[in-house]
């Protein structure tokens, strides 16, 4: 089962390569092909609702329960750890995605305008690839109390939050934990700053 789940996650990651996943039909076909090719899966087995984890087709209307891991320390981070009484932005990203790097850089240059927003960069990539992301592309965000890079070791984001079409994918939740806005792909920095602080 563990190996089957890994093939599902690998299929999701393949679909996100080059900052874009293509259409959902191709993603489903790739996932099914990889699952069928997995030697640890039952021969000829097709994914079923019981075998495969559910993927979130629509953005979560409120912040779901989750456990991610801080890249720097490896310490677990959950919904209970989010500081209250402020907006929270989750950015699903790939450290090698040029659009993700650009957005992080723009947020860093405008830190004074987002210093009161919880900002969480979340990725399913290898933590070693994520470890220097902020230092390389967004130095001004390093060690800020409201900014964290989180490793999604168990692929909970695509199960509980949403499966986006493009990176970076932004999800803005209000102080009440309810979704205010979300979008896939790169946006103009003025738009991002306005949505983060609404």
UniProtKB/TrEMBL annotation:
Tagged with keyword Oxidoreductase: no
Gene3D superfamilies for this protein: Glutaredoxin (3.40.30.10)
PROSITE patterns to which the protein is assigned, alphabetical: PROKAR_LIPOPROTEIN (PS51257), THIOREDOXIN_2 (PS51352)
Database matches in Pfam families: AhpC-TSA (PF00578)
Ranges in coiled-coil conformation: none
Comp. bias regions, Low complexity: 27-56
Key words, A-Z: Signal
InterPro entries documented for this protein: AhpC/TSA (IPR000866), Thioredoxin-like_sf (IPR036249), Thioredoxin_domain (IPR013766)
Domain of life: Bacteria
Domain Thioredoxin: 46-198
Record has NADP as a keyword: no
Signal peptide span: 1-21
Region entry Disordered, spans: 24-56
Protein's recorded name: Redoxin domain-containing protein
Organism: Sphingobacterium oryzagri
């Amino acid at each position: 089962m563990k190996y089957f789940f890994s093939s599902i996650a690998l299929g999701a990651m393949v679909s996100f390569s080059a900052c874009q996943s293509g259409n959902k039909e191709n993603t489903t076909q790739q996932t099914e092909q990889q699952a069928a090719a997995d030697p640890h899966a039952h021969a000829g087995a097709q994914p079923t609702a019981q075998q495969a984890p559910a993927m979130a087709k629509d953005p979560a209307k409120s912040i779901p329960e989750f456990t991610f891991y801080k890249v720097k320390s490896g310490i677990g981070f959950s919904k209970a750890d989010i500081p209250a009484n402020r907006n929270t932005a989750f950015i699903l990203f790939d450290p090698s995605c040029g659009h993700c790097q650009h957005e992080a850089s723009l947020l860093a240059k405008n830190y004074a305008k987002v210093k009161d927003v919880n900002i969480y960069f979340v990725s399913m990539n290898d933590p070693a690839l994520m470890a220097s992301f902020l230092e390389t592309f967004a130095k001004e965000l390093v060690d800020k109390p409201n900014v964290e890079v989180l490793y999604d070791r168990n692929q909970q984001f695509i199960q509980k939050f949403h499966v986006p079409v493009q990176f970076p994918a932004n999800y803005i939740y209000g102080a009440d934990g309810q979704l205010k806005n979300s979008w896939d792909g790169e946006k103009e920095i003025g738009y991002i700053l306005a949505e983060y602080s609404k």
